[in-house]
Amino acid sequence: MQYEAVIGIECHVELKTATKMFCGCPNEFGGEPNTKVCPVCLALPGSLPVPNRAAIDHMVRAGLAVEAAIPTFSKFDRKNYFYPDMPKDYQISQFDMPLTQGGVVKYWLEDGTMKSCRLTRIHLEEDTGKSTHAGSGDGRISGSTYSLIDFNRAGVPLMECVSEPEIHSADEAVAYLESLRRTLQQLGVSDVKMEEGSLRCDANVSIRPVGASELGTKTEIKNMNSFRSVHRAIQSEIARQIAVVEAGERIVQETRGWDEINGTTISMRSKEQAHDYRYFPDPDLVPMEITAAYVDALRETIPEAPWKRFLRYTQSYGLNVLQATQLIDTQPLASYFDAVVAASDNAQQATNFVLGDLSRLANESGTPVWLSAVSPEHLAELIVLVDGKTINSKIAKELLVRMWAGEGSPKALVEREGLAQTSDPAAIEAFVVDVLAANEKSVNDYRAGKTNVMGFLVGQVMKASRGKADPALVNDVVKKKLEQ
Amino acid sequence: MIPLPFNHRSTPILSSEKIDIRYVATLARLALTDDEVARFGAQLGDLLEHVDALAKLDVSAVAATAQVVESRNVERDDILAPSLDREVVLAQAPARQGAFFRVPRIIAE
């Protein structure tokens, strides 16, 4: 039987703010344990939370970027459970009235196919502290005899983004995550670094026979620490579930942890106790009323969506998937590229320069392209000079190095130094005559049938013209003279 | 008062019929003796009867509320405030180890 996987993804994303969600402690990764804490994030009696306006702005902007509905009213609720890395014994979260509802993440696969996955909601909550399980020797919870807690992360603003179960493969899951990551990154609402835990995700995976409409029993996969492990974990879990079903057994609804070393998911054997979080509105926090004027002002700050940019690059500019993705993944580079295209009207040449020579210069120097001395306007000038055959591509490459070094407008350099390409047949013929006269042996070799000396002679003519001669014309003239 | 679009049941379940004192105790991490289960169960039941009385009122004209105070949008600017000194913080801890709070073994949920 053929099976189809049905996958939903839950992401937790730490918001990029100066301070925590409900207090003025710094929101920074790492640092000395328990130094970024205060009575509010330690839940000392009598302390009261006050929401960080910047985090609410980030939420609304994230919602707008994925075309979610922003309600006119929202509130915070308490989610009650016990865990020692959460000092209040409840987490401030949002239950039935989150800051954004619905929305869609559009993403593309390696072959350029556009896909979309709807979102259920994005809500705002606070992160927990960090526990280190000790006494077991391997840092794992099982067998540990005690735990050490660092509350620096407790209270960091956290968005939870829940997708609908509309993803059908490991490839799609990773492409979805990449799209969500680049969207949030270019909004500036998060660093979205999996290695620092500012992006964390779990996947709900089930299978069903192709064509079935009912959902199968799902498992929740945790402990995936990179996009690569997300891909491997989902593939492995789909294969495991198919094997279970084919063996005539049933899938058990459970949480499974990804084991990177053994390449398999393992049951986390949690007690079969339904969670009862007893959500209720947090009496310490007053509701939020969201005005249309506020939402409209934030809407003005939303950049072009990465998927729209992708379509523009691939469909209007003719870039391939890899080129488009490379540009879009580095948003300032994409903006730089757009400025070059706008001024030069030659997307293909702009792509070649930006992803080719300029990226090489950037790698060598450590200065990003968009912060370099080569302004988009000057690069566009260079492209126009090449397009108009004022200079050839060899001179263009040399000029680019000088522009990178800060020499400014290529047009000015060409005019000042007389670098314009020589396309005057008489001038070129004069160079050719001189070169042939000085290289009698090569001329004789050519006439004796060793036609590969042609390249050498063309090179000599180019050199004599200081690189300015039109190479195609030089080629023609040399050939004509040799065969006279 | 601004009406809140709060979701609530159209026909409330009478809470007193549903109270499961052992379950509530488990959620609160309380170990109750059988005597306590009987005593607290009765007390909580009495309390919930008052709630049931409220549930019999016609409140169709009253908007649900998530908050009794009328203020809205109390927010702060994203500006750093001083954190506490770690020694002061850890002095409050029932147990510490170096720079950390030390807590008993966590049983996986």
**Run of helices and strands of chain B:** HHHHEE
- Taking pLDDT < 50 over at least 5 consecutive residues as the criterion, the unreliable ranges of chain B are 1-14
Helix and strand content put the structural class of chain B at mainly alpha
* Percent helix range of chain A: 25-40%
N- and C-termini, Cα separation of chain A: 75 Å
> How far apart lie the N and C ends of chain B?
41 Å
Rg of chain B over CA atoms, rounded to whole Å, is 22 Å
* Number of strand segments of chain A: 16
Largest β sheet strand count, sense and barrel closure of chain A: 9 strands, mixed
Percent helix range of chain B:
25-40%
Strand-residue proportion of chain B: 5-15%
The average pLDDT of chain A is 92
Determine the oligomeric state from the structure: heterodimer
Summarize the structure.
The complex is a heterodimer of chains A (484) and B (109). With 484 residues, chain A is an alpha+beta fold.
Write up what this structure looks like.
The complex is a heterodimer of chains A (484) and B (109). Chain A is an alpha+beta fold and 484 residues long. Chain A has three domains: 3-294, no CATH class; 330-417, no CATH class; 425-482, Arc Repressor Mutant, subunit A (Orthogonal Bundle). Chain A is built from 15 helices and 16 strands. Chain A has helices at 53-65, 170-187, 227-246, 292-299, 306-316, 321-329, 331-344, 347-365, 376-387, 393-404, 410-417, 425-438, 440-447, 454-464, 471-482, and strands at residues 3-14, 73-74, 77-80, 90-93, 100-101, 104-108, 114-126, 130-134, 146-150, 157-163, 199-209, 219-224, 255-259, 264-267, 280-281, 288-289. In chain A, the strands form four sheets. In chain A, strands 1, 5, 6, 7, 10, 11, 12, 13 and 14 form a nine-stranded mixed beta sheet that branches. In chain A, helix 12 crosses helix 15 (471-482) and helix 14 packs across helix 15 (471-482). Chain A is elongated and about 95 Å long. The N and C termini of chain A lie far apart (75 Å). Chain B is mainly alpha-helical. Chain B has a domain at 1-64. Helix content of chain B is 36%, strand content 6%. Chain B has a two-stranded antiparallel ribbon. The radius of gyration of chain B is 22 Å and the shape is flat. Chains A and B meet through helix 1, strand 8, strand 9 and strand 16 of A and helix 4 and strand 2 of B.
